[in-house]
Amino acid sequence: MNRIRSAVAMGMIGALALGACGSDEEAADTTVAAAKTITVAGANFPESQILAEIYAQALENSGVRIARKDPLGARELYYQALLNNEVQLMPEYTNSLLSHVLKQDGADKSPTATNVDEQLAELKAALPTTLTVGAPSSAEDKDVIVCNAAAVEEHSLATLSDLFAVADQITLGGPPELEGRSPFGLKGFKDDFDADFKEFVPLDSGLIAESIASDAIDCGSMFSTASSITTEGLITLEDDQKIVPNEAVLPIIRTDVATPEVMGVLDQVSAGLTTDILKSLIVKVEIDKQSPSEVAKAYLASVSQGG
Amino acid sequence: MSDVLDGFGWLTTAAHWWGRSGILRSLFEHLWYSAFATGLAVLIGLPIGLAIGHTGHGRFVAAAAANGLRAVPTVGIVTLLFLAQPRALYPVLVALTVLAIPSIVLATAAGIETVDADVKDAARGIGLSRMQVLRDVEIPNALPLIFAGVRSAANQVLATATIAGFGFGLGGLGRFIYAGYSGRRFDEVYGATMLVVGLVLLVEITLATVQRLVVSPGVRESSTRRPVPLDATVPSTLPTAIQLGGEST
Questions:
Q1: Residue from A8, A21, A203, A208 to probe the interface with B (highest B Cβ count within 10 Å)
Q2: Does A225 map to a domain?
Q3: pLDDT tier at A13 (50, 70, 90 boundaries)?
Q4: Mean pLDDT score of chain B, rounded to an integer?
Q5: What's the confidence (pLDDT) of residue B86?
Q6: Phi-psi bin for A20: left (phi > 0), alpha (psi -120 to 50), beta?
Q7: Comparing C-alpha atoms, which of A242, A46, A243, A229 is closest to residue A146?
Q8: Residue contact B83–A3, C-beta within 8 A
Q9: Mutation test of the interface with chain B: which of A100, A179, A214, choosing the one with the most B Cβ atoms within 10 A?
Q10: Contact between chains at A199 and B21 (C-beta distance less than 8 A)
Q11: Chain B residue numbers touching A211 (CB-CB < 8 A)
Q12: In the prediction, which pLDDT does B221 show?
């Protein structure tokens, strides 16, 4: 049953990813309604959808009108949707967002910030005036490389350095956008560490854990909060090269809808979120098969009772 | 338009053709997945279509089943089977075969059924067995339609084989469309798309040539220029007796 559900979810995501291109008419519609309604979307993985629902429901509870958009694909796509005003509020991660923003307009800059405060300052300077971010939460979700036991044993892997040393014998899987990303991506691994992997297999994010666990690929790129790392018995490699900086969760929002009331609600949400809370919410979606909207609702109810 | 030119640029960059994630390997994967699925579908679909067309039995059931198969989403089949055994190849081959079978069955059955009843009757009349009628009369006459079914199946399969690379990590030309789209490398998307279109055209031309060589010239002729019905040449004002062959007086 779990498999069927994730199969259905994957099919939907695929369809949505393909449908995400070219909807100029909708952009025009949301511009008109922008004063009243905020369009919220998550990216195409459960955590982002939970966070999007938490933002959406917290705002709804405060009387803001919310329109929901189906999950969007990779950052390369949804950042464009934010710029085009097709979406107005999304959950983001400090370093990933900063790295992406710095590479806009053909620039090839990398973040210099090493902690969340510096990232926030750099981000606010780099974002176009149409976009802004809320306060970062203490919840973090980093990119990690995980491997199956067979690969770890055969090549005695413990750190990313170990992995890069034997890269030419390793089949690496990950979301398709990993191929062109730097520093954490195939491009960065090759440019910075001279690690040329035997093969890169572009996979749907919902299929990566199972592909690694079945030994179909040796290692893959996943999120550190993913429950499947534990349930599939995968081994996370230590980031000894400090490639992945802090990735604090924060909302990105169109400036024209970022009123003080809205930002107040979002900052309050961020103040309550921690990595452990986030992990427990993801388990409810990935393992217990609750919907992101149910999980968000239960979480917000528990927060308001507690506070 | 510039996007299309970018696609050509991507295609004509030698470095993109080689290696484990190169165009050459993906092209080969794409071709063999498609050839395998279409071939298997012919092996399964042709006998079924022949049986239905020849006997006239099971036409309704077969048409319903074939249309049912057409309604099954190919991505759904691949995803379900893939989750049972990640990165195994057979889900894609099964899904593509399922996609190809209906058009082959239906076209074959229709081809056999529409062979002129008089021709079949004459063949039986000069003493051919049922199998001989099928082999020597019905199949040669039905070949243009059978080929039409196979060609349309091959086109669908070639275009749909891109799903192998759509998140399943099984290669084929879809890999570039999937990865290029997520990474906003649209030259890659256009380049791979043009390759798929090129493959479809190439296979279409090849099968059309084979068809010309295999189909009897007489059948080909009749499909373009139908023989004029006999009674149409006879003025309807003439007495019935003369129309029937002038056996009066």
A1: A203
A2: yes
A3: very low
A4: 86
A5: 80
A6: alpha
A7: A229
A8: yes
A9: A179
A10: yes
A11: 86-87, 169
A12: 54
ipTM score of the complex? 0.70
Q: In a mutagenesis test of the B interface, which of A12, A16, A18, A201 is the best target, namely the one with the most B β-carbons within 10 Å?
A: A201
Q: Which domain covers residue A228, as residue numbers? A: 143-236
Question: Which one has a higher pLDDT value, B39 or B76?
Answer: B39
If one counts the domains in chain A, the total is 2
**pLDDT (tens digit per residue) in B14-34:** 888 987 788 999 999 999 999
Topology of domain B2-14+35-223, CATH: MetI-like fold (1.10.3720)
Give the whole-angstrom CA distance, residue B188 versus residue A167: 25
In Å, what is the CA distance from B240 to each residue of A184, B229, B232, B233, B235? 91, 17, 14, 14, 10
Identify which has the larger pLDDT, A18 or A243.
A243
CB-nearest to B183 from A10, A176, A216 is A176
CB contact under 8 A, B184 and A76: yes
Which residues in chain B are contacts of A204 at CB distance < 8 A? 166-168
User: Quick check: A74 contacting B, CB < 8 Å?
Assistant: yes
The reply to whether A117 and A92 lie within a common domain is yes
Structure tokens at A28: 């025009």
pTM of the predicted model, to two decimals?
A: 0.72
Mean pLDDT of A47-61: 96
- Do A199 and A298 fall into the same domain? no
The nearest CA of chain B is from the CA of A89 a distance in Å of 20
Helix axes B2-11, B186-214, angle to 10 degrees: 80
CATH of the domain at A210: 3.40.190.120
Residue A13: inside a domain = no
- Choose the final residue of a domain: A201, A236, A271: A236
Q: Minimal CA–CA distance to A140: which of A111, A116, A169, A168?
A: A116
User: Any CB–CB contact under 8 A between A6 and chain B?
Assistant: yes
State the Cα–Cα distance between residues A280 and A288, nearest whole angstrom: 11
pLDDT of A230 strictly over 90: no
Which residue matches tokens 């890999």? Answer: B175
Chain B: closest CA distance from residue A47 (Å): 19
